[in-house]
Amino acid sequence: MAKPDPQIFIFAQKLAKTNSENILFIGDNPKVDIEPSKNLGWNVLLIDHFNLYPKLKPIKNLREILPYISN
Known about the structure:
Elements: H1 6-16, E1 24-27, H2 30-39, E2 43-46, H3 66-69
Parallel strand pairs: 1-2
């Protein structure tokens, strides 16, 4: 299995033993990372170091994930 096959995402979720709403997936490719994981109900963030996808409102670096993971 390989991305964007949804089975790889389903396998990862089973390994994590959690529900889809508890997952935050961070990827750098809309087609192979963001779309498949979002289709499974995961929370997603696109990281775009090179400003390739400005219309998708990506984060620029991993420091920007803090508001998404802090309680």
